[in-house]
Amino acid sequence: MKDQAERLRLMAKSLKTRIENDLVRGMKHTRVVVVTSGKGGVGKTNLALNLALALAESGLRIVLLDADMGLANVDIILGLAPKYNLYHVIRGEKGIKEIILHGPCGLEIIPGGSGIQELANLPEEALQAVIRDLGRLDGEYDLMIIDTGAGISNSVLSYVTAADDIVVVTTPEPTSLTDAYGIIKAASNRQARGAVYIVVNRVETETEGILVAQKLISVGERFLGVEMKLLGCLVEDRAVEVAVKNQQPFLVSHPNSQVSRNVRDIARKLHDKSGGDKVPVKASGLRSFFRNLTSFLR
Ligand SMILES: Nc1ncnc2c1ncn2[C@@H]1O[C@H](COP(=O)(O)OP(=O)(O)O)[C@@H](O)[C@H]1O
Ligand SMILES: [Mg+2]
Fold first, then answer.
1. Which fold has domain 29-297?
2. Which of 53, 76, 240 gets mutated to test ligand 1 (max ligand atoms within 8 A of its CB)?
3. What are the pLDDT digits (tens) for 89-116?
4. In terms of Cα–Cα distance, which of 274, 244, 277 is closest to 259?
């Protein structure tokens, strides 16, 4: 009799925990982190991919949206040859789940292709259907990382303006820094609501990176009133070039290299800043992200 009561009590307790977990999961939106830069070739794609992998490695559910229409894309670094991309989803030929690729560490990848630009030209009804389809992914991932192209195009700025977090990549070169300032200024003019984070890539020493970031952060605060935080630095490392040539993410091919350690630090910091495991994440979710993105593109 006593045993039975105890068993019932345990069953009720486990049911309660399960319902609570489901509720938390159901309420949790996917947070959108956009990786961008002013100048091209500063390491956005490598950072976006390896950061996504480092976050996935730590047990988070991550999807990487490849929205860079340039040449060196995520699929190339991963040695994948996607047959379909967002273009096919937007044309109604494929559902979003049918185009998702599976990478290392459970990372999922959405090849963008020329898809997103098409969104802006869709008639209202078709647009709503696509947003409903994309919105189905909301809550299925903790974070969506977006790799964008460089520069101040309307398309890149639309992603930046709609994101929860904006990661601006720069190198210590003055031209890269001025262009980084340019994109932050453009984002601020558009009233981007995301938190702005700086990553300094290709540094010789961490001190160099911190000094470079401090310069950018103080100029941004003084002239734009934009608050920025340094997310971290990545050293100049041959491992990056070798990994790209072998079509592998450096985190996979050179897991113990300095640059891989740098990426893991950045992943940890980004996760902590976005609330970590404890505090419910303040994100507006993928439906609202794609709705805003489309209205900005138009
Ligand atoms: N930390 C680094 N150390 C050495 N080389 C790097 C580093 N980051 C980037 N590179 C080099 O720069 C190239 C361009 O990087 P990529 O991520 O494609 O830039 P983006 O996406 O900004 O155009 C890489 O193929 C690599 O050769
Ligand atoms: Mg790129």
1. Rossmann fold (3.40.50)
2. 240
3. 888 899 999 999 999 999 999 998 776 7
4. 244
